[in-house]
Amino acid sequence: MKQKLYILGVVTAMITSAGAIFKVNHWPAAGILLVAGTLILVFIFLPAALINSYKAEGNKQNKVLYIVTYITCLVVFTAMLFKIMHWPYAGLGLVIALPFPYVVFLPVFLVVTSKNKNFNIYNTVFVLLLLALNSVFSALLALNVSKEIITDSYKLSKNYCMVEAAMVDLPVAGGQSAVNMKIDEVLKIAYDYQDLLLKYEGITREQWKENPGNLLDAESVNTPMVILTGNGESYPGDKLQAALQELFAQMEQSKGYEATAKALPSILGFAGENGKDPDWTIRNVAVTNFSWILIYLDGLETNLKMIKASAVSVL
After folding, report:
1. Is 295 buried (19+), middle (13-18) or exposed (0-12) by CB count in 10 A?
2. pTM for this one?
3. 214 plus 259 within the same structural domain
């Protein structure tokens, strides 16, 4: 039984650690690994380990301590998971989880162990240190980007929206030229992707354009995997990048757009030449901060519309 517990513990630790590493690096499947690791830890490994320890100890007087220990772990680890995954009520969970070990577990632990004359005082010190470590870790999880910084970042989207509104009455050159048609195609993909993001928050495009940022839930920091996977075939960002690369190629072949074609990749944040940047999707419109994706898409839409308008003086 002990050998199976050791193996289960190692597997649980590996899954949870891998999830943490994936989460830090914003890699796909991070959430799946963290949720799986936490569920195995809380509902399989911990109950099995506590039951095994209880039976080996043979002291039924400590039954309450084992039950409270499990409940404390359940509350603390669940709250941490909610905070890491940015799920609703994560803040409330941490408010409960932070004092729970001191208010519930510690009194029971001290009462039960005080009745055992052979109990080692160093075990109490060790438990207190673990509680202190738990408080520090939970406090770190509770740290958020300040509201002022978030508000300032959304000013970028507000400026883009103001520029777009001012461009409504500007003439567009070339009518249904190949470049304009390709720009419209890229804009359609960008609109669809932005609508997908906003739909997750229950926000319409009109609401976002009118008041960028202020309608978003503060918990929406990292882009949910359900959005990134799109239709299950590829990331929406990959489709957008492919359309932009086609636009670059179309501009290079169109008279009057050659200079714009060379400058556009830099304008849109492509590190490579001609839009050939393998990290562009991850860096700008996929595995990154939720709000930054929305802001980048606003900037992308504005820049493309400005290109259509500026072509009046070129053609």
Report:
1. buried
2. 0.51
3. yes
